[in-house]
Sequence to fold (136 residues):
Amino acid sequence: MWRHMLEYCEVSRRRSGGGGEVLFLRYEEMLRDLAANLKTTVEFMGCGFSEEELARGVVEDIVDLCSIEKLRNMEANRDGRRNVSGIRSDAFFRKGVVGDWSNHMSPEMGKMLDEIVEDVLQGSGFSFAGSAAASH
Fold:
């Protein structure tokens, strides 16, 4: 996965002269300001919100519709359905909060994962420093 991500990062840098073809969002950063990150995403995609949409509260409506509570409570995500891999749809929803990894991994496992990520990303200019997993 890491090499795949780094390849996208490198191709994006080469094609756009420094970045711009691939948008990387870290979960922790995204949660800090969902509305601002939604605006960043649609602008990156070339379809930013109009002044009228902003005034009508479309951004806030989308943030609400995409909330972990709304997604978790959708019938398709509550009824025990399984995807093509046999995984229940409700398995993709945990707490939706920064730092929940610590409820599923020991500090040693988190440290090991951080070291793997740091090693793989070394020299790429891309980092997860400042993320919840990096601060245990």
Q: What stands out?
A: DSSP finds eight helices and no strands in the chain. Residues 131-136 have pLDDT under 50 and may be disordered. The CA atoms of residues 71 and 119 lie 35 Å apart. The two ends are 23 Å apart (CA to CA).
